Amino acid sequence: MTPPAARRASGSPAKGAAAGRSAPRASSRVRMTARERREQLLDIGRKLFADKGFEGTSVEEIAAQAGVSKPVVYEHFGGKEGLYAVVVDREVESLLRSMTNALTATERSRELLEQAALALLDYIESSSDGFRILVRDSPVASATGTFGSIMSDVGTQVEHIMVAEFKSRGFSEKFAPMYAQMLVGMVALTGQWWLDVRKPRKDEVAAHLVNLAWNGLSGLEAKPRLESR
Hints:
This protein is mainly α and 229 residues long. It contains eleven helices and no strands. This is AcrR family transcriptional regulator. It comes from Motilibacter peucedani. Residues 35-95 form the HTH tetR-type domain.
């Protein structure tokens, strides 16, 4: 007959193994803080909005890629519109900051044009997804504006370049704001084209932009007229 102590000893491993099998596994998912979750949702939303646009992106897809339920997205942003608005505001602020820095880096007119062109191309190169979002028509209100409004603001900032050039040539300064918008519009549209083709190199694109803008300025007519009229 097996002694009671032996029976107890022989039964212990089996019970231990069973207990080990039934013990729940520790979760491998790292719990995010509210700030980390918000940033994750912004990153995912930014990518989806750039690839699919606002209408083509759903809350379900954002939540699925984040590994959370739809209510989590609503909790942080109130819905897709709120998330989109924050993404747009961040991109506008980033672009405006880089353009403003470029326009205060020097007082020489030609260098200002060069720095402004390079600043926009730098932003396109480093934040392609953000630029794709900005150049689309925004379906929701943005606190800081959209691409069109920010380019208009930049145009206002470069008016002094045009005023100085007009003064040096004895031209009427009343058209300087209009020329500033023309100049910025030329750079912005070229940037949209370069976003996809990426040729020639960024510095070459900037050089050609300035070539057209600067040499065009040097040959301005005091009172231009349409030959067809």
